[in-house]
Amino acid sequence: MARRGENIYKRKDNRWEGRYMKGSDCQGKTKFGYVYAKTYREVKEKLSACKQAAAKPERCKKDFGAFCDEWLLLSRSRVKDSTYVKYYSTVNHHLKPGLGGFLPQDLNTVAIENFSHDLLTGGLSVKTVQDILTVLRAVLKYCRCQIGPSFPDIEVIYPKERKKEMRVLTLEEQTKFMQYLLCNMDEVKFGILLALLTGMRIGEICALKWTDLSLENQTVHVGSTMQRLQILDAHSDTKTKIVVGDTKSQTSNRVIPLTDYAVSLCRKMKPANNTAFVLTGDPIRFLEPRTLQYRLGKYTADCGLKDVHFHVLRHTFATRCVEVGFEIKSLSEILGHSSAKVTLDRYVHSSLELKRANMEKLAAVGL
User: Fold this and answer.
1) If you average pLDDT over residues 65-91, what whole number do you get?
2) Is residue 1 over pLDDT 60?
3) Which helix (H) or strand (E) holds 159?
4) CA distance 298 to 302
5) Which SS3 state, helix, strand or coil, does residue 58 take?
6) pLDDT beyond 60 at 23
7) Using CA atoms, how far apart are residues 235 and 133, in angstroms rounded to an integer?
8) One-character DSSP codes across 274-301
9) Residue 219: which residues within 8 A CB-CB, separation 6 or more?
10) Cβ-count burial of 239 within 10 angstroms (0-12 exposed, 13-18 middle, 19+ buried)?
């Protein structure tokens, strides 16, 4: 029977056993250690020594860079290839060069803030630094899980980004650009016009094939995306490769209804081979996002439009939808967002005319 408050027991084999708390695991569950001796006095002395050692845990001698490598290895099988490439780049280009030489216990909020400030003053955007710090938080969580309670509780402070007004084509600019695309329209111009009429992302339109369009049902299925990814194999002859894979997220895999106008354009451009890429009219040859962005730049320059990249078309589509009274939940699903809040916060840009029209509604109540 144990003596009160000591966790010392006499076993059936006549030895004495003592139990003490060593710490806790990743889930916060207490981990226990055990000591044994022939007498009560001996086990009490051993128990006292172990408790003192547990109260002053040995410092981890493995540097933070090693923990980064371990976390990266464990992430490899649980994320998409594109996500893993981003993690790999973040760890090897930023975390390890900036913090890899630290021992984990020597990291603190001030060290992380200095690291963040160096990234910002080094020319990286606030959004990029925020993404790097998100990966850093995940690695710090892994460190704490491996080291235990002795690992310091570190607050990661994210830099604030000044919200920029997203470029959106005015109705006049959009009309002018659409007329340009319709003149001598080829597959590339048609693909850009289709993106403007549906809000598809650049990678989604590059991966789109005619098998994804149903002219009978007047729908387009967005089920894949194209992107150029870094090849991590050091022995590879090339540094990057084109990958056609799943969409950005589960909600990005969606079906978009097409307007009668969009369907009429599709009927004009539809090739004989239904497996062809929309942007090339060929089942094998494709147009990658980088090349499509170059083409868009040429077309907008011809129209005298400035500061227009492909995502501007997506924002323009969302803004036009709001201007005609689109139901936000439906718009969110068409854009492939996880929630209507994302649509409202990032993609809805009310024009001065729309704001004025809404203000004029107050006339109905005499204001």
Assistant:
1) 92
2) no
3) none
4) 6
5) coil
6) yes
7) 30
8) TTSBTTTS-SS----HHHHHHHHHHHHH
9) 213, 255, 256, 257, 258
10) exposed
